[in-house]
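Re: weekly structure request thread

Next one in the queue (188 aa):
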Amino acid sequence: MKPYYDRHKWTDVERDIVRRDYDGHNLSALRLASHLGVTFCAVKGQVQAMGIAMDKSPRWADGEIEILCEMITQYPPLTIARRLHRSVNSIVVKSKRLGLSRRVRDGWFSKKEVCEMLGVDHKKIQGYIDRGELKASWRTDRKPQKNGMAMWHITTEDLKDFITKNAGDFQGRNVDLVMIVWLLNGEL
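Done, posted below.
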C-alpha cells in the first residue's frame, strides 16, 4: 500500500474517463481501475469525490409518502412494501424518519408497549397483572412465560382505568406523557 503522500494524482483526462465510463456498478469500477492503473478503491474514492456515485434507492415521491402515511397504521410494513414496490427496510426507516407509529392493532396494547409508555420495568407491570390491578389476557391457550411480553393483551379501557387509579405510581422522565394523554382523551 502506498503511503498517503505517494497517492495517485488524478488528471483531468482521467477524471473525464471515469465520468464517461463509470455506470454505478463495481464491474465498471474494476475495469476503470485496470485501465487507469490504479486500485479499485481509488476509483470508488474518485467517484465519490466527483459526486457521480449512483444512488441505488429511488427518491420518495410525495404520493408515496401520502400512501405510506395512510397505510402505516392499518397494514404491516411488508404489505406496504409490496404496494409501493420498495423494501421492507425502506418502509420502516422512512416511517421512523417521518415520526409515524407503525402500530397496527386497535383496542389493545402489549405488555411491552405499556412498559414503554409508563416508563417502568416489565416486572413491575407483571406484578400489577398478577395482583389483578391491571387486567390482561394472553393470545395463546397458555399463559406467557417470562419472555412473552408481546403476548399479553391489555385493552385500552383496562389501561385507562389502571392509569387513573395508579397515576401516582408513575413519575419520572421515562413516562411517555403524550401517549398517556392521547390514551386518556380517546385518541388512541
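The mean pLDDT is 82. The CA atoms of residues 120 and 174 lie 8 Å apart.
Next request, please.
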